[in-house]
Amino acid sequence: MGENFTGVKNQKLTRLAVCLAAVVAVVAAAELALVQPPDLAAQLAAKGARPAVFMVGPNVLYRSKHIPGSVYAGPGQSEAGLALLKAEAGKLPRDREVVVYCGCCPWDRCPNVKPAVDLLKQMGFAKAKALYLGTGFKADWLDKGYAAEAPKQ
Q1: Is the peptide bond between 58 and the residue preceding it cis, with omega within 30 degrees of 0?
Q2: 100-147 tens-digit pLDDT
Q3: How far apart (Å, rounded) are the C-alpha atoms in residues 77 and 114?
Q4: pTM to 2 decimal places
Q5: In whole angstroms, how large is the CA radius of gyration of the chain?
Q6: In what order do the strands lie in the sheet with 34-35?
Q7: Best CA proximity match to 113, nearest among 93, 96, 124, 98
Q8: Closest alpha carbon to 132 in 97, 107, 114, 104
Q9: Contact 101, 137 (CB under 8 A)
Q10: Using one digit for the tens of pLDDT, what is the confidence trace for 2-61?
């Protein structure tokens, strides 16, 4: 009976840990203004003002395919990446809408987006947003058929 009780107890603790991890991910996302892939794709395809888009993930991802018109300015988890983002974003008016994206891994594990958005907010970009890529850039952007381009040679 002790083994069964322990197994049930461990199963409940595991479920609780999964629920807590989900809550933490939601709370972290709530701190960031998010834009969904179909909304950004439509905004980029429409005529008129477009947001500045920065890729703040690994350069290897950007070099394979990226959102058209986006500028590589990452990775957001490193001081060098944040310095590059600061230099690129520093050229823009502070009232410009700015979107950062990574897509290196599932959203709840991405180390790049939050530091990048935090930096933009510190710089005075009130309209800084993160592109929500729940699974990754390939699954949530490329596989959905949204516009992408390879770097210019």
Answers
A1: no
A2: 999 999 999 999 999 999 999 999 999 999 999 999 999 999 999 999
A3: 9
A4: 0.79
A5: 18
A6: 34-35, 128-131, 98-101, 52-55, 71-72
A7: 98
A8: 107
A9: yes
A10: 444 455 566 766 676 665 555 444 444 447 899 999 999 999 999 988 999 999 999 999
